[in-house]
Design brief:
This protein has 229 residues and is α/β, with parallel strands linked by helices. The protein has one domain (8-196): Glucose Oxidase, domain 1. The protein is 30% helix and 23% strand. The chain has seven helices and 14 strands. It has helices at 19-25, 30-35, 72-80, 102-110, 125-131, 185-207, 214-220, and strands spanning 8-10, 48-49, 57-65, 85-90, 98-100, 115-118, 121-122, 135-137, 139-140, 151-153, 157-159, 162-164, 169-173, 176-180. The strands form three sheets. Strands 1, 2, 3, 4, 6, 8, 10, 13 and 14 form a nine-stranded mixed beta sheet that branches. Strands 5-7-9 form a three-stranded parallel beta sheet. α4 packs parallel to α5. It starts with 7 loop residues before the first strand and ends in a 9-residue tail after the last helix.
Length: 229
């Protein structure tokens, strides 16, 4: 006879990036981070800050797989999180019931959580915005979830088409959320310096009247372009 499976599996101990790496990525534009990782790393475009005034964030991911219409794993992540962590919840793409509400967000703030990210929906928008904790989601639904599981905390998940592990670095701003794999943190931080410098140089040229960059002009004049008469 097969016994009933556990309703929640939790892994609390995972490797974390150094405070220096977190500091180096804090405040970085998500677009700059993507450019530092060869053009990828952002979650699905539907996952955006809940409100116009929702602040950006940078923190260490603690993953949870809540599944559809259930948030037991979110509570498990809340209990396991350390101050500065970002709870990121997978729902299998389910959007018909909220997995986050204002009370959970208030509890997360009380626990020192830096932000909450989910590919699912949330509810109690006015209450969430009043709490002030950054919440990034795919939408809003008044429907409520159960707390039955099964789910996981601390194990690898896929959110918004991107693989995420606990210990990865999550950065959010108006454009969305980017995942920086933990093992790439130092490399991305170093590349970010170059990207910022290049962006600043080009921005100055644009403000000075630049119409088309030299490297684009060279490409348009190259043998890779076919002129059709």
């Amino acid at each position: 006879m097969i016994t009933d499976p556990s309703i929640l599996r939790i892994r609390r101990n995972f490797l974390r990036p150094s405070p220096e790496i977190i500091a180096a990525l804090t405040g970085a534009a998500t677009g700059h981070l993507v450019d530092s990782m060869d053009g990828s790393g952002a979650l699905d475009w539907h996952i955006k800050p809940l409100g116009e005034a929702t602040p950006g964030f940078c923190g260490i991911a603690i993953t949870c797989d809540a599944g559809p219409a259930d948030n037991l794993a979110v509570f498990g992540a809340l209990e396991a999180a350390k101050p500065g962590d970002v709870i990121i919840a997978a729902t299998g793409g389910h959007l018909m019931a909220a997995v986050i509400g204002d009370l959970i967000v208030g509890m997360a703030r009380n626990c020192g959580v830096a932000a909450i990210v989910t590919e699912g929906t949330v509810r109690d928008v006015a209450g969430i915005l009043a709490v002030g904790l950054p919440v990034y989601c795919a939408g809003v639904s008044p429907n409520s979830p159960a707390r039955n599981g099964p789910g996981t905390v601390g194990l690898p998940i896929v959110v918004g088409g991107v693989a995420v592990e606990s210990g990865d670095i999550l950065v959010g701003d108006r454009d969305g959320v980017v995942v920086v794999p933990r093992q790439m943190g130092a490399k991305v931080a170093a590349k970010l310096i170059e990207v910022r410098a290049a962006e600043a140089a080009l921005e100055a040229k644009v403000k000075g009247g630049l119409r088309i960059p030299d490297f684009v002009t060279a490409l348009l004049r190259s043998d890779r372009i076919d002129e059709i008469s």
